Amino acid sequence: MKSTSKAAGADWWRGAVIYQVYPRSFQDTDANGLGDIKGITRRLPHIAALGVDAIWLAPFFTSPMADMGYDVADYCDVDPIFGTLADFDEMMAAAHGLGLKVIIDQVISHTSDRHPWFVESRASRDNAKADWYVWADPKPDGTAPNNWLSIFGGPGWEWDGVRRQYYQHNFLTSQPDLNFHHPEVQDAVLAAVKFWLDRGVDGFRLDTVNYYFCDKKLRDNPPALVATGGLDAPESNPYGMQNHLHDKTQPENIGFLKRFRALLDQYENRTTVGEVGDGARSLETVAAYTSGGDKLHMCYTFDLLGPDFTPAHFRRCVSDFQDNVVDGWVCWAFSNHDVQRHVSRFAETEEEQPRVAKLAISLLSTLRGSICLYQGEELGLPEAELAFEDLRDPYGIRFWPAFKGRDGCRTPMPWEASRAHAGFTAADKSWLPVPYQHAALAVDKQEADEDSVLHHYQRTLAFRAEHAALRDGDMTFLDTEEDVLAFTRSKGGETLLFVFNLSRKPVKVALPKDIKLGKTIAMPGFGTADVGATVALAALDVYCGKLA
Question: Which residues form the Glycosyl hydrolase family 13 catalytic domain (predicted)?
Fold first, then answer.
């Protein structure tokens, strides 16, 4: 089945629906307990049937896998655990044949310490790549050059006995940071990007896009005014105690992003989406990175990846973006491979999880911007509860038990309810276990149930595709006396009204007097609310109407 999306042309990415694939957990075809690229190819019809525009593949490059592939040792090859370049080319052809674009991760702020660039760089202080990474002398007392911290815990510096210097790492000690102040580093990174462009990829998701440059003077970060945990650094992590003025989001990044965009513009219909994690400055950073049409096409932030499921929160996030980012574009998401699955974050009880899963995609699909779905959310998968001995995520292992890490959202995709490992692998053991709760929500079981979360996703995304106003139309919030999320989406001659009741009690909403309803439109999976002078909504319900 081909994708039912209507994306086309140079602006296909604007308002697109992107499906994130985490390759090691999607489908195993060689019985080693790990997903692979042939497995992605096998399951592409499932993705296309959802009606999405593109897939985004998390890293599949050659890597020692200390951080599950986000520690790259070769930017231009496929790690053998995932397959070969020929497998990738076959997957690309199959995806394009189904009408799906292909976006791949680019993890270029750092490499693995086993990358040949770093092996050469650490060999001496005067070799050709000596300055390709961020090296610094110790203080007179032997301690690190400054107070920078690693997101994964501890100092952001690691001592190297060969060079007798420290190197910077924002993540694991085995993930040294590249020195983007060096023009040859930029050239080498862009050459790797060109390799994949020439192979036909349609775009890039840029991991930690605001981490490329650090302060040349290596100045200390000041303390945060309010030390709070965030989605990239939970309260158990002291990383949140600093105001990260100097170790990321440097002004030189703008120039590199322009170089990146200039390369992409040599090819037709390509796109970029940057991951921005910058605390209170995120919107300011997104505005700078997406303005002017000469840098990133769009960014996504961590704003909707937290536990807040309230009208005020969603209105504030979207309004703040619209107020601050004048000519840029956003990609919204509720879940990804780094955060707890949103059904577990938003639902108050296990019984209401299917209802919350349906309401969440209905809301996400009506927001202004592109949207990203994470594999398994179309099944309403909750966060997996894992034992410590099952963990593979170094972040979770480091901060256990205060923070359980990211493995709970990375467990394998359940395809067939009655098979071992829910059909993910024929191996005796999967790299992470498949919870029995997930097997009960497997794809084959939901395909047979017309009322399933899976069918709801398909119908909701088809509804989005049918209305141009939902792809890239204007969005205006309405004030009401009830605690609901009310807004219109408009394009051309069509204006749609949406009223979301995110509470656990029924409400009656008096519409503003200047709203003239033409007709009620049934949102997939929800009844048509009673409409008179007010809109009557059940708990966790939504109303849609077309204005006269």
Answer: 20-410
pLDDT the model gives residue 534: 84
Concatenated DSSP letters of 384-432: PP--GGG---HHHHHHTTT---SGGG-SPPP--TTSGGGGS-SSSS-SS
Instruction: At 155, give phi and psi (nearest 5°).
Output: -65, 155
Contact 422, 415 (CB under 8 A): yes
Longest dimension (CA), the chain: 78
Where do we find the tokens 């009655």?
Answer: 418
Neighbour tally for 494: CB within 10 Å: 14
Residue 335 and residue 436 in one domain: yes
Q: What tokens appear for 305 in the block?
A: 């990846």
Q: Which two tokens stand for residue 489?
A: 């989406």
- pLDDT at position 187 is 98
- Alpha-carbon distances, residue 438 vs 377, 411, 423, 424, 496 (angstroms): 11, 9, 12, 12, 36
The answer to pTM > 0.85 is yes
Q: What's the confidence (pLDDT) of residue 530?
A: 65
Secondary structure in 3-state letters for 174-209? CCCEECCCCHHHHHHHHHHHHHHHHCCCCEEEECCH
> What's the pLDDT score for residue 195?
98
State how far the Cα of 336 lies from the Cα of 328, in Å rounded to an integer. Answer: 22
Residues 246 and 365 in one domain: yes
Coil vs helix vs strand at 61: strand
Active-site residue list:
207, 275
With CA atoms as reference, report the closest residue to 16 among 202, 209, 267, 293. 202
Say yes or no: 379 and 523 in one domain.
no
Looking up residue 199, the CATH number of its domain turns out to be 3.20.20.80
